[in-house]
Design goal:
single chain, 433 residues, 15-stranded mixed beta sheet, four-stranded antiparallel beta sheet, 13% helix, aspartyl protease, aspartic-type endopeptidase activity
């Protein structure tokens, strides 16, 4: 019989084994003892991976795991609520950013998409028509309950209906339609259990936009995480989104004021009654290189009557600017890259190159704060690596065309702080990939 003891916190690459009859060539043995030591990646190690990693790959994996571990330890020591964030592309093949959430008692773990433009959270439940194979099973939780039609929360969801005594609702999310029952259960983020958290239990969905394991709403509405945890987190949070290519939970969602950076510049949050959940800011100009491009003021102006303006959104992938603003930025970008270079297109991107280019910076000018994007936040590369594109586009020519969206690719490797009580958003550079 073998008994394996790991001392990974002290000696990361060594494991000890109490064994009988182990080949002495495989380990270093203390005379008079049966304690034997061997390298985790040695040919004799029972922990040797089936597909050997290069030294560089193994070190990078260890470093990423250390980073997540340190986030957890920091949250325990400082009593801070820090939730690791990962790129959904690498883990669940979804273009969203995800966090682990434990739901119910005993807990069931799901990977929820972060969405700061959505209020109510919702997850697929057992028996859901059109949902993925990963779902929450209400019958396994002893703290689960339905929300009554007569509860105040039932009036806070879109299109509420009553089938019997339970509150149900339906909504449109991107190209998807969602039908759900309003329920309550304990939701745990980081080390904080949130008993009686209200969310949607999806019973049916169509389309392809619904995040496969559900969504965590970080908007400003009545059923959002901010509102339901106001006493705990004081309507304050920040996130750092890692690169799309990051393989681990290296980003972080920090909840509450005590976890936030102290040296960060802010711009005022604007309130729009027509779209009260969205995080509006005043974008008054855009600089490409050292030149502020000529954008007609109405293209950037905040208008609470029509809903026009600029928002920060964690769910949109690429920044969209209304056409006059985008054309001005794009044309100056092309001029600075080189007027003689051939420009191609790739999907929805209209400014692409098949040769290496020198990339000018792009700076968003807000009241009280400038955000300058480095190359990694400006360019997207084709899978083959032969084509490079400006990772922005014109807003669709429809009802949403009045809205400029600072999207998640342009937010990657930045700390974005939402301080709702003081009505402000802060941004600072932070590598978290």
């Amino acid at each position: 019989m073998k008994i394996l003891l790991s001392l990974t916190s002290l000696i990361p690459f060594l494991f000890f084994s109490l064994v009988q009859g182990l080949n002495p060539k495989c380990s270093t043995q203390d005379h008079g003892s049966n304690l034997q030591v061997f390298h985790i990646f040695s040919p004799c190690s029972p922990f040797k991976p089936s597909n050997p990693l290069s030294w560089e790959e193994s070190v990078l994996q260890l470093q990423a795991k250390d980073q997540v571990r340190l986030q957890f330890l920091a949250s325990l020591v400082a009593k801070r609520s820090i939730v690791p964030i990962a790129s959904g592309r690498q883990i669940i093949q979804s273009p969203t950013y995800i966090v682990r959430a434990k739901i119910g008692n005993p807990a069931q773990t799901l990977l929820l998409a972060l969405d700061n433009s959505n209020d109510a959270s919702w997850i697929p439940c057992a028996g859901c028509d059109g949902c993925s194979s990963t779902f929450f099973v209400p019958e396994k939780s002893n703290t689960f309950k339905n929300v009554s039609c007569f509860a105040a929360e039932c009036k806070q969801v879109p299109n509420p209906t009553c089938g019997g005594s339970a509150c149900a609702f339906n909504l449109t999310y991107g190209s998807s339609t969602i039908a759900a029952n309003l329920v309550q259960d304990t939701v745990t983020l980081a080390t904080d259990p949130l008993p009686g958290y209200t969310f949607g239990c999806i019973s049916k969905t169509t389309g392809t936009s619904t995040p496969p394991q559900g969504l965590l709403g970080l908007g400003r509405g009545p059923l959002s995480l901010l509102t339901q945890t106001q006493n705990l987190y004081q309507s304050t949070f920040s996130y750092c989104l890692p690169s799309f290519k990051a393989l681990n939970f290296s980003g972080s969602l920090r909840l509450g004021p005590s976890a936030q950076p102290k040296n960060i510049k802010f711009t005022p949050l604007l309130k729009n009654p027509r779209r009260s959940s969205l995080y509006y800011v005043n974008l008054f100009g855009i600089r490409v290189g050292n030149r502020i491009v000529d954008i007609p003021p109405p293209a950037l102006a905040f208008n609470p009557t029509t809903g026009a303006g600029t928002i920060f959104d964690s769910g949109t992938v690429f920044t969209r600017l209304v056409q006059p603003a985008y054309v001005a930025v794009r044309d100056e970008f092309r001029r600075r890259v080189g007027a003689n270079l051939t420009i191609t297109t790739l999907g929805g991107f209209d400014t692409c190159y098949t040769v290496p280019i020198v990339t000018p910076t792009i700076t968003f000018l807000f009241d009280g704060m400038n955000v300058t994007l480095p190359q990694d936040n400006i360019l997207i590369h084709s899978t083959a690596g032969s084509t490079t594109c400006l990772a922005m586009a014109s807003a669709p020519d429809n009802v949403n065309s009045v809205l400029n969206v600072i999207a998640n690719m342009q937010q990657q490797n930045h700390r974005v702080l939402y301080d709702v009580p003081n009505s402000r958003i802060g941004v600072s550079r932070e590598l978290c990939s």
